């Protein structure tokens, strides 16, 4: 993990800057031909709710905001109805809304963010990380493959079927 980057809870005053990064990511998904995030979700209210629930996390390069995600522990109702099977039935961290600043695209920052999520899980004595993504989000699918996430099946999230992945940490 690159020690230049810090990972911590987002603060309420960061909401607009986080939303700007998500807007960039929404546009990138569209440019990539993905249908993910093209329906008004996520939005600023979702980010504000993440922060209020203490689920919003930021990746910083010094004081520069470079990435965002939402982290939850054992809290994703859609995952109870997987078409397939999870690798484990233990406690898990789930991440959503991974977004990287346009200024940092192509620098491996999404991988850095996922490595910080792994460290967060271990700090909380959790050895399972779960996530889902659109079938057409090629960038995230490559990262999952590169970091050893295993495809477990499909979940329905907000009315759409999505690929579900899990990684068991050691």
Automatic annotation (TrEMBL):
Keywords: Acyltransferase, Transferase. Residues 5-170 form the N-acetyltransferase domain. Its EC number is 2.3.-.-. It comes from Sphingobacterium populi. It comes from the Bacteria. CDD domains: NAT_SF. InterPro entries: Acyl_CoA_acyltransferase (IPR016181), GNAT_dom (IPR000182), YpeA/RimI_acetyltransf (IPR050680). One of its GO terms (molecular function) is acyltransferase activity. Gene3D superfamilies: 3.40.630.30. This is GNAT family N-acetyltransferase.
